[in-house]
Each structure stands twice: as structure tokens, then as C-alpha cells.
Amino acid sequence: ESPAPEFDLSVEGALAGGVQRGRDQILVQAPILSPAGRPVGFTRVAFSLAEDHAAISRIQRRALWGTVVFGVGLAVLLIGLSRLLIVRRLGELAFAARRLQRGEHVEVQVRGDDEVGSLAGAFRAMSCAIETRELEIKRRNRDLRRVLDNVDAGFLTVDREGVMASERSRILDAWFGPADGTSFFDWVERFAPVAAHTLRNGWRDIADDFMPVEVILDQLPTRVEVGDRTFAFTYAQILEGEALAGVVVSITDVTDRVRTAIGDKK
After folding, report:
1. What is d(CA 159, CA 247) in angstroms, rounded to the nearest whole number?
2. What is the DSSP string of 178-241?
3. What is the DSSP letter of 4?
4. Which phi and psi (to 5°) does residue 99 adopt?
5. Are the C-beta atoms of residues 110 and 120 closer than 8 Å to each other?
6. For residue 196, with 0-12 CB atoms within 10 Å meaning exposed, 13-18 middle and 19 or more buried, which class applies?
7. What CA–CA distance (Å, rounded) separates 135 from 132?
8. β-strands 243-253, 229-240 pairing
9. Which are the contacts of 249, defined by CB distance < 8 A and separation ≥ 6?
10. Which residues pair with 28 in a beta bridge?
11. What's the DSSP call for residue 249?
């Protein structure tokens, strides 16, 4: 079956006249009339639309490529702005956070009032608060160290696992030597092996909740002989709520007191 013609090319259509539009052409038809008004012929003029269609196609292609170039340029611009305004500033905050983690002094510049600027402001406030807290802790530790180093007794703290805190009286190093490790039992074992064995077993009972802590502490060594000197050990609980967090060990040189008591007995 042949396709329908694009235009009506019949004689009747030509005599009727008019304009017909197709995909690639415009057909103008008009009848030729005699002086009496009777049709004696017709005229038909066709206008090609190929050049117009080609021009429209060129314009569409140009518009498409212009849109693509504009989109790519806009994307590159937005990526550059995001790196400049967001990514780089976030990188600076990450670098400052790593420095703060290492305990270094950090100065954060707050630029802009956007979300990244608000984050930088919050980070700066946090950094200042941490620095203030660290200075306060150092001041308190210095005061505590001043107290610990100016009393006759030696004090140290031991947690539930038997690990000694780094802060302890300086006089302990003079009596028993520095604590190279962090184990309380290893340190005591260097100058009092028997007492260290008893202490280790006692701390194991504390970890196992074998019996009340008060009972276990009462069974720990209270007097230790080191060479020709005698030391008294006392123990006090450190509680967090109702749970045992550690033990304060107080060590006192009672050599003169013991010698005086022996002399009085004689």
C-alpha cells in the first residue's frame, strides 16, 4: 500500500487554491479565472524548506554544544569554589585537629559565617577550652606534686589491674629506686619479693571479687623489711560510686620507731 501523498495535487485541490504545508515544502495553489469568472487553469508554486531546516539544525547543534560547554564550565567553577571555600577549610580543620591530638597549641582562623565558619568557631572554642583545662590540670598536678614531695610518707595509686599511676611521691624513688615499668607488683618485687607475691595474690582476689575488698586489703602486707630499714604499708580504697576504681598505697619509713620500740622492750 503506497503512502498518502504529502500534498493534495488533484485538479480540484488546485482550483480550490490555498496554502499546503509539508515537512520540507510549502505549496501555494491558486486558480486562473477567465474574465467571465470561470477557471481556465491554475498556478502552483512550491517553496523548499530544506535550507530553513538545515539552519534550524545548525542552531540546535550550536545551542546543544553551548549548553554542554556552559554546563562543564559551571561544574568546574562550582568544584573550584567548593575546594576553595569548603574542602580546603575542612582540610585546615582536620590538620588542626591532628595537632590538637598531639597536644600542640592550635590557632584556628574563623572565616565566613557559613556552616564551615560555624564549625571553625566551635573548634576554636573547643581548643581554647581544652587548653584552659590542660593548664588547670597542670597547675593542680604541680600543686599535688609539691605536696607529695614535701611529706615524709610516700603515696601512689594502683588500679584494679595493678598498674601504678605516673604521679607518685618522689621519696619512693629515693627509697626503692625508680619504677621503670607500670606494674606495682614488679616494682615491689625488686626490693621485697615475698610482699610482692602476697600483693599479687590479693589483687587477683580483688579482680575476681573473691571476698569483700576491705577484707582483702586487711590481709595485705603492712610492714616490709628492706635491708636494715622497715616500711609500713597502708591501703585506702578509691571508689567511683560504689565500684572500686583503685587503691591508694601509703608507705612510711618506720625504722626509727621500730628500733625505739625494740630498745624499750630490752
Report:
1. 6
2. ---SSBHHHHHHTT-HHHHHHHHHHHHHHHTT-S-HHHHHHTS--EEEETTEEEEEEEEEEEET
3. P
4. -65, -40
5. yes
6. buried
7. 5
8. antiparallel
9. 155, 156, 157, 158, 184, 233, 234, 235
10. 19, 45
11. E
**What does 115-160 look like in DSSP terms, one character per residue?**
HHHHHHHHHHHHHHHHHHHHHHHHHHHHHHHHHHTTSSSEEEEEET
Q: What angle do CA 19, 20, 21 make, to 5 degrees?
A: 120
Amino acid, single-letter form, for residue 169: S
* Ranges of residues in the chain whose predicted pLDDT is under 70: 1-17, 84-87, 108-114, 116, 143-152, 180-182, 263-266
C-alpha dist (Å) from residue 203 to 77, 194, 198, 210, 226: 66, 15, 9, 10, 22
What's the CA gap between 89 and 109, in Å, rounded?
10
Q: Name the burial class of residue 129, with classes exposed (0-12), middle (13-18) and buried (19+) by CB atoms within 10 angstroms of its CB.
A: exposed
C-beta separation of 250 from 236 below 8 A: yes
Phi/psi-derived region of residue 18, left when phi > 0, alpha when psi is between -120 and 50, beta in every other case: left
- Cut 0.70: pTM above it: no
Give how far the C-alpha of residue 54 lies from the chain's centroid of Cα atoms, to the nearest Å: 59
How much is the pLDDT for 231?
Answer: 94
Measure CA of the first residue to CA of the last residue in the chain; give whole Å: 142
Per residue in 240-262, pLDDT (tens digit) is 888 888 999 999 999 888 888 77
Given this model, what pLDDT does residue 2 score? Answer: 42
Amino acid at 58: R
Q: CA quadruple 73, 74, 79, 81: dihedral positive or negative?
A: positive
Long-range contacts of 238-244 (CB under 8 A, 24+ apart): 238/157, 244/160, 244/206, 244/213
